[in-house]
Specification:
Blueprint: H1 5-25, H2 32-39, H3 43-49, H4 53-77, H5 111-126, H6 134-146, H7 148-171, H8 178-197, H9 203-219
């Protein structure tokens, strides 16, 4: 297909419209007619540039991923934490029987900052200024499992989030590396999906609080 400059602009408008519908309404809402209406183009234009609905969704998803990862990079770039301290901040008191007491002395200085920025990276990637789009963000996992055309885009998207989280852990002087960063992302995803299922009024506040509790233990796990 030969496309001139005007055609490229129209195609970009259609992709932008598909991405907006994906972000705010989810995969099921992306139809040629709905995209044409949002892009303010004739219906024939969407079917001319995108022969299948799957192709239209894939291009919209890629546009959505580009915008989301750009926002996430901005959050990560602003992060300048105090270094984490992987050692206990104070020694737990001894028990009367001479055995070590269990306590909360292993809390990391700065772990709350790391929890906040990790949640912020995912929040920026998931929703930007629209908390209602969180459901559509996680719908991409299910759709990637159903459609190979979407899977590569979602994998690249997640790989960038893992890279950003790894960079945050490194700057915080915390145990880092791709496997650990991927584990942190998986924990964050799980907390947010749980908050969605429980209809939490503020999924990100719920997730930040849980991450502040979980990250000190997660980041002190010794690699095998």
């Amino acid at each position: 297909m030969v496309v001139n400059a005007r055609g490229e602009r129209r195609r970009a408008e259609i992709v932008e419209a598909a991405g907006e519908i994906l972000l705010h309404e989810g995969f099921g809402a992306v139809r040629h007619r709905a995209v044409a209406a949002r892009a303010n183009v004739p219906l024939g234009a969407t079917t001319y540039y995108f022969k299948s609905r799957e192709d239209l969704i894939a291009q919209g998803l890629r546009r959505m991923a580009d915008i989301a990862t750009s926002r996430a990079r901005a959050v990560a770039a602003d992060f300048t934490p105090a270094p984490l301290n992987p050692q206990p901040t104070e020694r737990p008191p001894a028990r009367s029987d001479g055995r070590a007491a269990r306590g909360t002395g292993g809390a990391m200085a700065g772990a709350g900052e790391v929890a906040d920025v990790v949640a912020g990276i995912v929040a920026a990637s998931a929703t930007g200024d629209d908390p209602a789009a969180l459901l559509a963000f996680y719908e991409r996992y299910v759709e990637a499992g159903r459609h190979p055309a979407y899977a590569e885009i979602v994998q690249e998207w997640n790989a960038e989030l893992v890279r950003l989280i790894d960079a945050v852990l490194t700057r915080a002087n915390a145990p880092a590396g791709e496997p650990r960063a991927r584990l942190v992302l998986a924990l964050t995803d799980g907390l947010l999906i749980g908050a969605i299922a429980e209809r939490s009024p503020d999924p990100f506040a719920h997730t930040r609080e849980a991450l502040r509790t979980a990250l000190p233990a997660l980041l002190t796990i010794t690699d095998p």
